[in-house]
Amino acid sequence: MTKLVGTKFQLKVWDYLKRIPKGKTKTYKEVAIAIKKPLSYRAVANAVAKNPYPPIIPCHRVIRSDGTLGGYSGKGGVREKKLLLKKEGIII
Question: What is the pTM of this model?
Fold first, then answer.
């Protein structure tokens, strides 16, 4: 993977995504809280959507607070996100 290019906020979000363990999910709000920007969950969602390396940076592990999948910017869209999560033992 080449050097990531993004805003300071995007880089912070992407760095956090890399630390979400396989088989676990976080909500956009949980990510916002974890990076010390608790009211920025919409900005987190935008940063996740701009992830340049899905699924290497595992943005598929981030879901909505209501338990639904949300979007997926990687090849295959939400269908692929669901498959990636299923491979990790997460059924949504």
Answer: 0.93
